[in-house]
Amino acid sequence: MTPGVRYLTGGMRTDDILTGLEGGDTAALARAISLVENQRDGFERVLSQLHSRVGRGATHRIGITGPPGAGKSTLTERLIQHYRARGLKVAVVAVDPTSPFTGGALLGDRIRMESVSLDPGVFIRSMATRGAQGGLATTTEEVADVLEAFGFDRILIETVGVGQTELDVAATAETTVLVLVPESGDGIQTLKAGVMEIAEVYVINKSDRPGADKLKQEVEVMLGIRRGAVTGGKGRQRAVTADAWDAPVLMTVASKGEGVAELVTALDQHHAYLAGSGKLAERRARRLAARTRAVVNRAVRQWVWDETRAEELLAQRLADVTGGRRSPYDVAEEILDQVRAAAGRGAPE
Predict the structure, then answer these.
(1) Whole-structure pTM value
(2) Which of 75, 132, 220, 325 is most buried, taking the most CB atoms under 10 A from its CB?
């Protein structure tokens, strides 16, 4: 290797990755995603170079979340098949649990989506929930940017559960699908932790099982309650929500492919609604503002711990903290005072 030149995954330089992405090289795409996910040298340059190609086309980002065992991967596989039949290129970002041994993604969706994993028009990438310093949602959105710039028409972001982290990740998409199953327990209890606020399409999967109709009714009731709360009561609901999205509750049996065509139609309708109402541009502007803040926070955090004496000072004061002589807040204030002094000498680049 040439001295003084930064090499990345597989000995590939940043320039080579950018050239490969421009030429549609899938190997360069995989390396670019690894670069972004692990925040290696050059990842911000890659994202900056690709930014002008993001948000200009008809790419639709779809978040798919729900409790474990709801059949999300099977449903995702069926969606891929429908989109590929229409000639669309599809990418999947599967956010999996982290392996306690390797730190990598544990489930491996390329194995679970065997029927589509060898299709050249399909790209599947598993991401571990260990996340990056900037937060898993930010990193997932950055990976989606790379995929969009590469030319994928549909980007499916599948999460492993419905915890707050998963909801944050799913919310980085333009349309979020919540997948439920009849045997997932109390249906109403499933719809907590902000799920009702972020989902635009609800799917009762495995709807050939007992209890599916009851769960569908419960979800529809909850949606009605939410709409009533937002609009201030039944009397004003029709006028206030005339141009609002009415979230559908669909029934599917993904293992048999039943109801998937209706889901695809609902996803297309929601994307058209966002584009036609101007909400797509509004959401993108909000996401970019939030992204800029996240990038600043990430850079400042890294600067604080890497470029100042914060880590050294913490090590010096740790015995006092563990001994009860000083609190973490006292030490944090001392570190911040030091950071302020360092910032006065030269802010982070």
Answers:
(1) 0.83
(2) 75
